[in-house]
Amino acid sequence: MQFSITCTRQAGEPQHLCVIHREQAMAPDYFITLNLPDLVPDLYYIQAAYYIQLVQMYALRCAREENCLSWTLLRFPQRVKNQGTADFLPVKPRHQWEWHSCHQHYHSMVAFSNYDLLDVITGRKVAEGHKASFCLEDTSCDPRVRRRFACTAHTQGLGPGCYDTYNANIDCQWIDITDVPMGNYIIFLISPKHIAKLATCH
Questions:
Q1: Mind listing the pLDDT tens digit for each residue in 6-55?
Q2: Count of other CB atoms within 10 angstroms of residue 53
Q3: Angstrom distance (rounded) from CA 117 to CA 144
Q4: CA angle, residues 14, 21, 196, in degrees to nearest 5
Q5: Domain ranges for the chain
């Protein structure tokens, strides 16, 4: 799943100005199978609420624990829907989840999504980010679908017909663009290392 982004910066100004443009979605590779999750990101949700933030080092104390310390950040939210027929569950068993004391939550996955910033002409990766699994849960669900996974209940997963939402102000929900020059770029979202078996590949 991808969309393009144009970033400019005025001489002498540390702040980037970026504009996101939706691209024609690439055709997914479908294969027929039953009872698998199917995770689909919401591009419109990203487009509606992205912003650039210049962050001082002292404000990134918790981000250091998440292994994603940065300076000038392209922040954006993410909302992923499980439109498959089975639960999406962490690969690691609960006793292997990692406790992060700064945010007071468990991480059931090292990374939930990888974000690559690609040069629109060459396709070369110029920056990257990742979304640590803050807490994999049914943030919201379609009508008549019951939420079954919640951080407060110490369960993690994403049920069919439900959404896992990460707001743009959450640590690691960003790409570090501190050293990225002016130009046109594409943001590419993908599940890390294809660690989960899914019904479709987006």
A1: 555 555 554 445 555 555 544 444 444 468 898 888 888 888 888 888 87
A2: 16
A3: 38
A4: 95
A5: 2-195
